[in-house]
Write a structure and sequence with these properties.
Chain lengths: 222, 262
């Protein structure tokens, strides 16, 4: 499994296909968070931005290996393991973005509430921001996995569905990503830090279920 | 596409799958390789498997060695073993000069050699070849034939599809033909008309020839030596078996026999 993960990660990093989603993440951060903004608000933006970015990364990883090459790796291991390693490589990349984004935002933001009246300690804020980012990354990974090969094989539908589902997952109440981001933003108004532990558990369960489904489908003909 | 397929793959066997174009040969091979799962029924046993596709895509961002190292690790080799296996197979296919060339810059034939090499890296127990010879030059075809014979001599099973009916003709143990939706067993006819190799070997006093020699050679026992005649494709594997048997046999002579009518 480690060898597969290393192979898929190398495929992703060497192909330069990671560049567009990572750039998108950078643009989201640059547009949504300025230096001196309240820290929790900016962390909310960073977390929300990671959802579509992770879905995109998963899409890239799930389709990056040409079929004949995938057949070789699948015969050596199993189609499910190969697909799991694709999801793992994308999620690993998203986790790196989550850590980097949280660190940058925490450092450049103002450690106060939205009205700049109440002080917000940086370390707990960063922890909550990182957890919220991970929640969004997990939800994004689940969406990306469910809306690309081997479930949806048409590129057009897959991209459209992933974009719409990402938006929906951020605005629909009941979505763990929505509540994690909402927790940061409302916390910012009162200067309190909420750790999105429940959302994290829920998103982990969602991504585990989605992974089980898509890995099972990976050996379906074609 | 295929129904009611009941296939047992014994060790030490080369299995040829036949059928017209589009009959489902490749589907069957992918099922056997564990790449696809059957809609009904199942596969039992999961030997260490390697698969060679007909056309290997060059669209991977690795060098030839880089790709083989990754695949060696994926096949379960350690770092050092993967490195030496990659070097060995690049040498055997005579493409050492392309070791550091990106896959995207390799010719079709050289890419195909890489596809074959990745399958042979980790000495698989089940080798699935889907027209793997297509695009290989004559020398590489012979190397692949020899490598298949070698794997089979070591106890592996090789299953292949190839448009050339003479492919591995003197090594094939079973033939199955896809007819409609069924898989039909066909009588395997050993091709004896290909080039053969005669090996004269002498054992230590009282030694008997090892059982299950590669290629089931014909044997003639002389006064102080034994003459073995085997299809050329098996000759390397047979020599290796003789030299590595315990006690080892001494090789006195090797002669290449060309069929008179060709």
């Amino acid at each position: 499994m480690t060898a597969l993960l290393r192979y898929q990660t190398a495929l992703l990093l060497r192909s330069q296909r990671w560049l567009p989603p990572v750039l998108l993440y950078g643009i989201f951060l640059a547009a949504g968070a300025q230096g001196g903004d309240p820290v929790l608000d900016s962390l909310g933006v960073a977390a929300a931005a990671l959802l579509p970015v992770t879905a995109w990364l998963v899409r890239i990883c799930a389709t990056q290996e040409p079929p004949a090459a995938r057949h070789c790796t699948a015969a050596a291991t199993s189609p499910a393991r190969v697909h799991l390693s694709c999801l793992g490589a994308a999620s690993g990349c998203a986790a790196v973005l989550a850590v980097a984004g949280t660190a940058v935002i925490t450092a450049m933001s103002d450690a106060t509430s939205t009205d700049h009246q109440i002080a917000v300690p940086r370390l707990p804020a960063a922890t909550a921001g990182l957890l919220a980012a991970l929640v969004c990354a997990l939800v994004g990974a689940a969406l990306g996995a469910l809306l690309t090969w081997p479930v949806l094989r048409s590129t057009g539908w897959s991209v459209t569905a992933t974009a719409l589902a990402s938006l929906l997952a951020l605005v629909a109440s009941g979505s763990p990503a929505h509540s994690a981001v909402y927790g940061l933003v409302t916390g910012s108004q009162t200067g309190t830090v909420h750790l999105p532990l429940l959302s994290l558990t829920a998103s982990a369960a969602i991504v585990a279920a989605a992974t089980a489904v898509v890995c099972r489908l990976a050996s379906r003909h074609g | 596409m295929l129904r009611g397929v009941d296939l047992d793959l014994p060790p030490h066997t080369v299995v040829r799958v036949e059928g017209v174009n589009g009959s489902g040969k490749s589907t069957l091979l992918r099922l056997l390789a564990g790449i696809d799962t059957p809609t009904e029924g199942s596969l039992t046993g999961r030997p260490r498997t390697a698969y060679v596709p007909e056309r290997f895509p060059a669209a991977l961002p690795f060098t030839a060695t880089g790709y083989l190292l990754h695949l060696g690790r994926i096949h379960g080799l350690g770092r050092a073993a993967a490195q030496s296996a990659a070097t060995e197979w690049l040498e055997r296919f005579g493409i050492t000069e392309y070791a550091r060339t990106p896959l995207t810059r390799l010719s079709k034939g050289t890419s195909q050699k890489i596809a074959v090499a990745q399958a042979l890296l980790a000495a698989p127990e089940l080798l699935i070849l889907d027209e793997a010879w297509t695009g290989l030059d004559t020398a590489a075809r012979a190397t692949l034939d020899g490598a298949v014979a070698e794997r089979v001599a070591a106890g592996a099973t090789a299953v292949f599809v190839d448009h050339d009916p003479r492919r591995l003709a003197d090594a094939v143990g079973e033939v199955h033909r896809v007819e409609g939706t069924a898989l039909v067993a066909v009588e395997a006819v050993r091709e004896e008309s290909g080039p053969r190799v005669r090996i004269e070997a002498a054992g230590p006093p009282g030694a008997v020839l090892p059982a299950h020699l590669p290629g089931a050679p014909g044997r003639e026992t002389g006064l102080d030596s034994t003459t073995l005649t085997v299809a050329a494709v098996h000759s390397d594997a047979l020599l290796r078996a003789l030299l590595t048997s315990r006690p080892p046999w001494h090789i006195r002579g090797v002669a290449h026999l060309v069929p008179e009518d060709r």
